[in-house]
Amino acid sequence: MSNETSSPGSIVSGPRPAPADSAVSKETRRRVIAASFIGNFVEWFDYAVYGYLAVTIATVFFPESDPQTGLLLTFALFAISFLVRPLGGFIWGHIGDRVGRRTALSLSILIMSGATFCIALIPGYDTIGIWAPVLLLIIRVVQGFSASGEYAGASAFLVEYAPANRRGLYAAVVPASTAAGLLLGSLMAGLLTTLLSTEAMQSWGWRLPFLLAAPMGLIGRYIRTKLEDTPVFRELAAEDHAVKAPVSSLFRNHWRQLLQAVGAVLLNAVGFYVILSYMPTYLSSELGLGETESFLATTIALITYIGFIFLTGMLSDRYGRKKVLISASVAFIVLTVPAFALLGTGNFLVIVLVQILLGAMLTLNDGTLPSFLAEMFPTRVRYSGFAVSFNLSNALFGGTAPFMATLLIAATASDLAPAWYLVAAAVVSLIAVSLSRETCKEPLRHE
């Protein structure tokens, strides 16, 4: 038993299940789903737009570089913004476990939407020189800090409100909202590149999607402030059993689960940003597909991806988290390289079908991971455990994925390099998940 529970009147030793969820109304759960969806949607809409408009952004902020160097610098800024995410995971985890999930989520969406709006206001390199990419970097770091609290908090929020036998389905709302944000980003990027000239895109067109963040963020914050915190957290707070230093307790008492979680997230980190964010750039810059066709293929794949996500959530509720996550890793190990080889055919129909296949494979991981991670840690450190493991893996391997993919292609002269990177990530995740325990049929624990 940890030090925090050794005082008189503390909770008894050993795992204690969370209270029954029958008192939560359907209306409350619907509002929880809406609040979790819109907040995460706004967060990843920005990441989508940045990734899909990377070629244009590279021209605006690094005009003196050759195209590939400018693209590398743009993705380097994307990766650097992820370095702050582990720090953000510690801070947001502390707030979420100590003060409350709702407080952390309401703050994170406000910071993210404000920072995203500011990107639209940054002058280009031709106007203020080196200060343009410097300002872009600063704002990206602020966004990275904000995003580090969103995915983990929304997942914990949904799992703690969900019926016990549907936690996987409820938690799947988080990756579904992420994919919806990517979908809107893809649609907007495709529409803008189709309707506007290259000069108009570089002058003002690329700024339009970032301007949408402010109103969407304010709507999301308003919805979140109208909700109560989760029943299990309110029970801990009422009994004064919240951990005073959740991150310290996490590393002291749950370090094995933390290591397993970091490894399990690896495939999701690399797969998400290669398949859903970097892919349009890969198709247009590396394979020579037109920008409009690249966005269209990604958009079609994203629509099917959202549907697959909820199916995966239901499968994980029925068959268990481990079986579905292991299936995802095996599928990536076996099928990724052949799938990328088919992308090289240049046939649009083949490219769309391959992207749908890769997206379906990723949903086996992405749709299961939120409930898997939330169930792995007890209520007292759930937000911290999820946030630290998820953001550490994403900082090291997710944010760097577009940069690494571009760099590996340049170093090996092989368009299949990103595929082998995905295979390596799948092997690590397979080992980590295999060493973890199944939790889907167990009640949520307080400690």
TrEMBL record:
The keyword Nucleus does not apply. CDD domains: MFS_ShiA_like. It is a multi-pass membrane protein. This is Proline/betaine transporter. It is found in: Cell membrane. Keywords: Cell membrane, Membrane, Symport, Transmembrane, Transmembrane helix, Transport. It comes from the Bacteria. Pfam families: MFS_1. Belongs to the major facilitator superfamily. Metabolite:H+ Symporter (MHS) family (TC 2.A.1.6) family. It comes from Pseudarthrobacter scleromae. The lineage of its organism: Bacteria, Bacillati, Actinomycetota, Actinomycetes, Micrococcales. The keyword Membrane applies. Its main location: membrane. Residues 1-10 have a biased composition (Polar residues). Residues 1-23 are annotated as: Disordered. Residues 32-441 form the Major facilitator superfamily (MFS) profile domain. The chain crosses the membrane at residues 44-63, 69-92, 104-122, 128-147, 168-192, 204-223, 258-279, 294-312, 324-342, 348-365, 386-413, 419-436. Gene3D superfamilies: MFS general substrate transporter like domains.
